[in-house]
Amino acid sequence: MSHRNAFGRVLVYGAMACAGMAAAQTPASVPYTPSWTARHHVQWLIDHEGLELLGSQWPLPAAAVERALDALDAGAVSAWGLNARRLVRQELEALKSETLLSVHVRTEAEGLNGFGDNHAPGSRAWLAWPEVRHSLGTVSLAGKLGMRAEAVPAALRGWNDSSAYQLSPDGSAAVLGIGGWQLQAFAHRHWWGPGWQSSLINGHNQPGWRGVGLQRGATAPSPSTWASWMGPWNLDVFVAKAQDPLLFDNQPQGFWFSGMRLTIQPKPWLEIGLSRGLQTGGQGRPNGAGNFVKAFLGQEVNKNPEDTFTDSSAQIAGYDVRITCPRSVSGFMGVCAAYTQWMGEDAAGHLPLPFKFMSLWGVESTYGQGQYRVFAEWTNTNTYSLPWDTKPSFPGYLNGVYVQGFTQGVRWVGSAQGAGSRVLTLGWMDAAKQRLLKLHVGKIHTGVGAYNPRWQAPTGDFWGFSAQQTAGWRNLQLTPELALIRFPQGHDERLGGRQVMRVGIDIRTAF
Asked: Is the pTM higher than 0.85?
C-alpha cells in the first residue's frame, strides 16, 4: 500500500494556498454555531434570498455571519426573509452581549443525537459570559468564557476516574484576527456536513474539542481572480487533545485529533465540502512533532505486513455535496434540496483518494413560506456502503490502530448511531413554534451514542422517536423533550435496555 495519502496532501496544500490569498479584514470574533431553528433560517436565506454564507460547516466566525446578514439587500428580501434575518441576528446578539445560563435536567439514557442536541446522556448545566471584541489597527482580538458541568454515567468513566461529574470550558474561545484569518484557542463542538441527523466525520454527539486552529474570518467570495469561482468559502484547520478515558489495558490513550474542512459554494444551488480527520499519538503510539507532521501530510499510513514502519495515524476523509432543486420542480412542498456525504479510509494502493466509504443520503424541503422543513436521511456507517459497491462491507469507525475507535470521551465523533449501523430518520421542523419531531428506524450494530469495548450495549433492529418543543415564560426559555428507542430483540446492558426512554427539560435564561 502507499505510504502517502494524496487526498490529505491535496487538502493540506490547498489550505496553504488559500491562506496566501488576500482576504477582507473581517474583525476577530468567537466561533458561532446556531441553534437548529437559527440554522433552518440561515439555510432558508441561502436557498431563497442569496445569503452568501455556508450551511454545512459550523462553527463559523460570528462576525462573518453578521456581515453576510448585513449584506442582504433589505429592499429585495421577502417579508419572511427579513423575519428570518432578524431572528438569527437576535441569537447572535444574545451570545455576544448577554450572560446565558442553561440547565438541562434529563434522565440518564442514550439517544440518537442530531444537530444542536445536547450530547450528554444525563443532566448538565452551562454558563457563558458575553463576548469581548477589541481592535488594534490591523490586528483584532475577541474572547468568550464558558463553563459546562455534566453528569457522567458510570459506564462512560475510565478505570481511574470515579468522578460522577465533569467540568469543562465549553463555549470558551480566544481569537487573534490578522490578515482576514483567525488564530484561535477554543472549546466547542463542530458540525461538518449537510445532514440534520448525522455528520459522518465531526458532529454533535461528542464533547467539545479543546484545541487550537486557524480559520478564515469571512465567508465572502475571494477577491482573487483565479479563486473567485469558489464563491462563498471557508477553511477550518485545528488540532485538539482528545478526552480519552482509560477503558482497557494497552489502550493508546490520550491521542491527538486534527480536523480540516474546506467548504465552497461555486453556484448558488451547489455547496461542496472536503473534510479530513486524523487520530495520532497517544500512549504506546509514535509521538512527537515529526510523527505529527507525517500524519498531517498523510505519510506512513495503511501499513502492510511487510512494511517496517508503524502507522503514523488513523485517518478518515471524504466529501459532501448539497444541491438545491430547480425552482421548476418546486410545488406545494416548497423548494427542495438533496445532499450526500461520503467518508472513508485514507487512500491506499493505486487509488490516490479516500475509499471504503460510509455514506449518508438525504432530501429536504421547506414549505409554508419558510416556516416548516421536512427531511428524510439515510445513514449507513458500514464501509463499501455506496449502492454500486460490490465488496463485502464491515463496520466503519473501528480500526486496529486505536481500539477505542473513532471516539472522544467514549462518544462517537461522527454519527450517534455508531459503527456498522443503518438508520433512516424522518424529521419535521416548525421554526415559528420551535417544534421538532423525528422518527428513526433501522439496525444498530455496536451501540447508540457511546462505545466501550468492555461492554455490550443494546443492538439489533430498532425503532424510535424524539420530540421537543420550546416555549417562553417570563425571562425563561423552556424546552421539554421526550425520546424513545426500542429494540424488540437484542442485548440488554449498561446505559439502556431493550426500551430506552429519555425525558428532560432545558431551562435557559439571559441576564
From this structure: yes
